[in-house]
Amino acid sequence: MSNAPRRQAKRKPSFLSRLAKGLYIMLFVLSLIVVVGYASLNLLAPKPTVDNQVTIDTNRRTDPSAPPAATDDPDANPTPKPDELVLHRRDGVYTCLLLGVADQGGTDTIMLGVFDTNAKTASLISIPRDTVVYQNGKYRKINSTYADGEEAVVAAVRDLLGVPVDYWVSVNLKAFNSIVNQIGGVYFTVPVDMDYEDPYQDLYIHIKAGYQKLDGKQAEGVMRCRNCYASADIGRTATQRAFLVALAKQTITPSNADKVTSLINTFNQYVSTTMKLSDMVWFGTQAIGMDLDAALTTGSLEGEWISPYWQLDDDAVLELVNGLGIYQEEVPAKALHIVHP
């Protein structure tokens, strides 16, 4: 009789253990794909670089009717060097100026966007089109600076609020018509009855107040209607901000994944920007998972209508600028260039 140990039969793995192993391998592969994909995105779309400090000339004249005192001796009162204020930017915070433009020229919409990529928060601030600024030796409405191009609006905003503007995006308002139709409409609460016609601008708006599904033409009308509010542009800017949030939330959904190509074509047709594609991709990766209801703050530059301008409330605007969190330091009042004709 042999004393050799009996070899036990090899047990076949159960279905559950095979399934668990298969899922584990699949999870590992997916994780690897995500890591490699994320690394590739960061390689192809690195974090944008901006100057980490901003120098502001605080010796800006605000009253064109009060020229410097005259003197017979040109050396008696030498022109002082401009007072310079240096502010340091917080890392990971970027700014973008959004301009909404109609076919007839001029910008109906001016908004400053601020994106804190570390805190995953954003702000969208409306700048009323009739806001008074002092530029090129005279008072003017800020939207009139668009006659000299987008960079002139950027310069006006930068001077007015003492903030850097990293990018600008100029959007023809017809883009909203196209995008809304592509995604099958947008649900939105229209705040007031809108009845306005302007044949010169091919603008015919007839929309009842209330929650409803808007088609492209109606959406464009909601974005453009200024005379529908007692407060004119102030009421319109609040509606514009609310509509942009609703549009973003209803566009960025899995159900619209098959519309990416057409949406990109719309972007190319109606949008001009200084933002590079690689920067767009990077910002897109930073925005993944953001809850717009909690992460997005909206507002407008406070003030009052004193014909023919919207004149800003100095204290309220200074508080708002500090609340944007662009700088490491507290922004002093002299950094802003708010004027009162």
Describe the structure.
With 341 residues, the protein is of the alpha+beta class. It has one domain (53-58, 82-335): LCP protein (Aminopeptidase), CATH 3.40.630. Helix content is 34%, strand content 25%. It has 9 helices and 16 strands. The protein has helices at 15-44, 150-161, 174-182, 216-224, 233-251, 260-270, 277-287, 292-295, 314-323, and strands spanning 53-57, 84-88, 93-101, 107-116, 121-126, 132-135, 138-141, 167-172, 186-190, 194-198, 203-207, 210-214, 271-273, 296-300, 303-306, 309-312. Strand 6 and strand 7 form a beta hairpin. The radius of gyration is 27 Å and the shape is globular.
What characteristics describe this protein?
341 residues, alpha+beta, Aminopeptidase, six-stranded mixed β-sheet, two-stranded antiparallel sheet, 9 helices, 16 strands
